[in-house]
Every structure is written in structure tokens, then in C-alpha cells.
Amino acid sequence: MGYSSHVALYLPLILVTLLPILITHQALYATTTNLQENDYVIKDFGIKNGNLFITVEGTAGGSYDSSMGDAGYSAYLFDTDKGIFQVTVGEGIYNNGTPYYLTDEVEVNEIKLNECLSTKETPGAPNLYDNTVEYVDKSTNFSRVDKVYAIQVRLDDPDENCETGEHVDKIFSSQTSP
């Protein structure tokens, strides 16, 4: 029996075995890369155990708009007594559908549609689980959160009007402290 007859004999078995795995992989990939807006609809926010938190209707950081590629990201922002901080959700470095999470401090006074965002690195860390996103920074003692946002950011070329090239493209939701 030659090589081609072995392939013909085992090909149906291989396909039947691999097909469910491929379908499952595609389904998992689709749920993380196709933006689900309920992942960005804010239900509650505050400070818990010293960490800033937002709860959402869907899965915190569970999806992002993959059509933006590396030209944008989604973010959860916390406007606090110590400044504005964000946890970002974007396309992972391996482009395999797994979101990538980072934190930044936002250096603007107000979040507005189409406005430039100036950001810098922070010692904070993102923590996302179930329907909760946390900004964890043990070196900063937050005492209040005034407002929170869930936004989408578009990355353009930097220019004299916006050094970072980051612009607020969409505001999914926001809430203000009572």
C-alpha cells in the first residue's frame, strides 16, 4: 500500500477528528474579537479593597473590535481624585484573538468625543474577571471615583494638535458618582 492510499484511507478519519476542534477554535476566536457592546455597558463602579473597579453587563474585556487591528483599542476609564486612569483592551501581540490588557494614566481634564488623549505609563496593573475590571495600583491611595467611561480609541498619526495620535472615537457608556 503506497503513501497516497494511506492518505485516502485515513483522511476521512482525520477530518472527522479535527473538524470539531477547528469549529470550536473559530467560535472562541469570534467571541473575543467581535465587539460585544454589553462588555462596555457600565452597571456599577467604585473602590474595593483599594482598587478601582467597574462592573459591566457583559464580560469585562471579553471582546474588542478586531477590525481596528493595531489602529485602536477599547478602554475603561476611572476619573478619580488622583487623576484619570484607564485599563485598555486591544488586539493581542500574537493576533490570535486573545485580547491584550494594559494600564495608562490619561493626561486630559475631560473625556470628549473626537478629542485627543494624552497618556503615560503607570505602575498600575489590569485585573479583569467575569463582569469586573479593576485598576490595581498599591502605590496610589484612591479616595474617590467621580466618573467612569467605557470608550473606543482610534489611533491616527501624531501631529501638532495631538502628539499621541489617540482620539476618543466612541463613548459606549459613562456614569457619574451620585
Describe the structure.
By secondary structure, the chain is α+β, with helices and mostly antiparallel strands. It folds into two domains: 33 residues; 140 residues, no CATH class. Helices cover 17% and strands 43% of the residues. It contains one helix and eleven strands; from the N terminus they run αβββββββββββ. It has a seven-stranded antiparallel beta sheet with strand order 6-11-10-3-4-5-7, with no helix packed on it. It has a four-stranded antiparallel beta sheet with strand order 1-2-9-8, with no helix packed on it. Strand 4 and strand 5 form a beta hairpin. About 11% of the residues have low confidence.
Low-pLDDT residue spans: 13-31
**Tally of separate domains:** 2
Radius of gyration: 21 Å
Class from helix and strand fractions? alpha+beta
What amount of the residues lies in strands? 35-45%
Order of helices and strands: HEEEEEEEEEEE
Terminus-to-terminus distance: 78 Å
Number of helical stretches of at least 4 residues: 1
What strand order characterises the main sheet?
6-11-10-3-4-5-7
What proportion of the residues is helical, as a percent range?
A: 10-25%
Shape: globular
Largest sheet: 7 strands, antiparallel
Mean pLDDT: 84
What's the β-strand tally? 11
